[in-house]
Structures are given as structure tokens and as C-alpha cells.
Amino acid sequence: MEQLLLWGVGLWVLTRLNKKKGAPSAQSVAPGSVDFETGRVKVLPWPDQTPTKISEIDYPLFYVGPGGRTIGPATACTLPNKLQLRQDMISAIQQLQVLASQWQQLSPAMQQDVQGDRIREAVEEQTNKLNKAYRDLKNGCLNVRTQTFSPDTTATLTRVAP
User: Fold this and answer.
1) Is the separation of the CB atoms in 133 and 92 below 8 Å?
2) Phi, psi torsion values for 86, nearest 5 degrees
3) Where are the alpha helices (DSSP H) in 106-144?
């Protein structure tokens, strides 16, 4: 009976030691995973180029991963007009797709004619709109103030009598 009790205590001590050795330290959290102790979430970097597809707007810009462990840079942003800029980018990409379809339907002679010039001008206009919306989103999100109050605001401290 004593041996059984000693074996049980010995196994219990060994399992406790193994759990302490196997526990990850706070500094060894893998990138891309949530650090549940501090609540950190991985934010994806901004793309180098303007998105050219709607799927590139959804991922990585406005991406929210499973469990919220990874999010896109625009998702983490508190810019008030970010959803309007997102819609502007989607609209410009849709217009570019329509213009590309119209261009494909033109004969080579018509592509060199006035109709081709109109489509090229419309493509340039929509491309500028897309680039401007992306640039405004990126610059706005990178330059958003972290303060929630005006620095000019002053509050007087008053003491209320009990």
C-alpha cells in the first residue's frame, strides 16, 4: 500500500514538472496567433500595390480571420470614412471590368478610333479613382490620431462635498 502511494505521489510530481517545462513562455508566442495573456492580435501589413480585384480588397485589407486572431490593416483602422473608401474601390474595379469587356468587343479598327479613345479615358479615370481611394485609405489609417479627445480640451477638477 505504501509503495502504491509513493508511486502515485511520484507520478503526480513528475506530471507537474513536465507541465511547467512544456508551458510556453510569454515571449515564445508564435506570430499569427493570439497572445491570450495580453490579447494581442496579428495585423496584416499594407499591400505594396493598389488592389486590382475585389477579392484583394476583402483579403488582406478588410480580412478578419477565424476567431479574430488575424485582421487586415483596414479592419484595425478607426478612420470614419473607411467603408466609403472601400465602396469607392469596389465600384472602380467593377467599372474597370465593364470597360475591359467593352474593349474586348471592339474590333481592332474601332479600338484605334474615337470609341477606343473614350474607353481609354474612362479606364484612366477609374484607375485614378481606385488609386486615390486606396491611397486615402492607407494614408488615413496610418495617420489616424490615437487620442479620443481634443488636445485643446481642458477640464476643471471639481470636488463634490459628501
Assistant:
1) yes
2) -60, -45
3) 108-111, 114-142
- φ, ψ at 161 (rounded to 5°): -70, 140
Give Dmax (Cα) for the chain. 101
Three cell numbers written together for 32: 499569427
Burial class for 159, CB neighbours closer than 10 Å (0-12, 13-18, 19+): exposed
Task: Kindly state the cell numbers that stand for 133.
Answer: 481611394
Rg (CA), the chain: 28
Q: What is the pLDDT of residues 97-107, one digit of tens each?
A: 999 999 999 99
* Predicted pLDDT at 97: 96
Is the pTM higher than 0.90? no
The helix/strand count (H/E) of the chain reads as: 5, 2
Sign of CA dihedral 101, 128, 79, 33: positive
Sign of dihedral through CA atoms 6, 8, 12, 15?
Answer: positive
